Amino acid sequence: MLKFNVTTKILIGLILGVFVGLLFTSAPDAAKTYIKPFGDLFLNLIKMIIVPLVLSSLVVGAASTGDVRKLGRIGAKTMAYYLLTTAFAVTLGLILGNILDPGMGMTLPQDAKVEVKQAPSVVETLLNIVPTNPVKAMAEANMLQIIVFAIFLGIAITFIGEKGKPVLNFFDSLAEISYKIVGIIMEYAPIGVFALIVPVVAANGPSVLLPLLKVIITVYLGCALHAALVYSSLVSIFARISPIRFFRGAAPAILMAFTTSSSSATLPVSMEVTEKNLGVPKSIGSFVLPLGATINMDGTALYQGVSALFVAQVFGINLSLSQQLVIILTATLASIGTAGVPGAGLIMLTMVLQSVGLPMEGIALIAGIDRILDMARTSINVTGDIAGSVVVAATEKELNRT
C-alpha cells in the first residue's frame, strides 16, 4: 500500500480540486453548496487549535528563555527582517508593474464602486496591542494581544521560580497536546484542501480570469521571484541551508496557505514544519511565527505595488519616481499599521492609492479576482514567516541543522 507524506497529500487534494473546479464552472453554486462545507469544516478544525497552540507554546518559550534582553533582541531582529523584506517586496512589485504594464488596455466599468475603510491611527494600533481583557483577546483570536499576554505570563513564571513550575508544566502539556491535535487534523487535509479549492476555481473560471490575466501573471511572477531571490538568499547566507531543503521543508505550510488564503489558519502547520523539518526551536518559532502571521505582509506588499501601477495605468496616470518611493514607504509602514485589522489587504491598498492621489474606483477592477491573488500573496506571507524564523534562529545560534 502506497504511503504519502503530508506535502504529497495536500498537493493531490489541490490538483484534484482544480480539475473538479473546472468541471463545476457552469454550476458554481452547486460547488459552493455541496463541496465547500467540507472545506469550511477543515478551516474550523484548524482555527479551533490556533489559540491554545500559540498561547501554550509562546508561554513555554518565554519561560524557557528566562531572559528579557534575549526576547527583546529576538523581537528587534524579527521586526527588522519583516520591514526590510516587505520593502523589497513592494519594490519588486513596482518594477514588474513598470515592465509588464498590467493595466494597459483595461477600462473601468461604469458601475464600478468600492467601499473604502479607514485605517486605525498609529497610537490606536499601538494601544490595541496590549489586551484589556486577555480572555476576550483569546475569544477573538487577536494574535498580537495573545502574544503580549503570553510573553508577560512566561516571563512572570520565570521570575517566581519554583512556584511557577506547576503552571509551566500545564502549558508545556497543553503545547504537546495541541501539536498532537494538529497532527490529527492534518489527516483530513487532502479532503479539506480539495473542498476549499473547488468552489474558488468554479467561481473564477476562464471568463473571469482571462480579461485580468496580465495582472494575475504579474503578481504570481513577482511572488515567485521574491521567494527565489530573497528567501533563498537569506536562508543560504544566514542559516547555511540550501533553498531546495528550505522549500521542501516549508512545502506543507506553503500549500496550506495557498489553499486557505489565511496566514492564521496556516499557523499550526507553519509552527510544526519549522520545528520538525527546519530545526527551529519552539522558543523562537512560537514567537516569530505568530507575530509574522499578523504583521508580515511581503506578498500583500508586492500585490500593493502591482495594483497601484495597474490602477494608474487604467486611468492613464504616470507615476513619478518620487511617487513610487512614497508607495514603497506607505506599503511598508501600512503592513505594521494595519496589523490584526480585518480586511487589512484592502485597507493597505486604499492607503497606498491615497498616498499618491490615485482614484479609489480602480480597486473595483481587481476585486473580482482578489481571491485568486490572495492565494499567491498569502503563500509568500507564510513563506516569509518561516524564512524569518529560520534566519532569527540561526543568528541566535539555536538552529538545529541536523
TrEMBL record:
Transmembrane regions listed in the UniProt entry: 41-60, 81-100, 143-160, 181-203, 215-239, 301-321, 327-353
Alphabetically ordered keywords of this record: Cell membrane, Membrane, Symport, Transmembrane, Transmembrane helix, Transport
Membrane keyword on record: yes
Compartments in which it is found: Cell membrane
Main location: membrane
InterPro entries per the UniProt record, alphabetical: Na-dicarboxylate_symporter, Na-dicarboxylate_symporter_CS, Na:dicarbo_symporter_sf
GO cellular component, one term: plasma membrane
Record's keyword annotation contains Transferase: no
Gene Ontology annotations of biological process type: dicarboxylic acid transport
Membrane topology, from the record: Multi-pass membrane protein
GO molecular function, one term: symporter activity
PANTHER family attached to this UniProt entry: PROTON/GLUTAMATE-ASPARTATE SYMPORTER (PTHR42865), PROTON_GLUTAMATE-ASPARTATE SYMPORTER (PTHR42865:SF7)
Listed name of the protein: Dicarboxylate/amino acid:cation symporter
Organism: Caldanaerobacter subterraneus
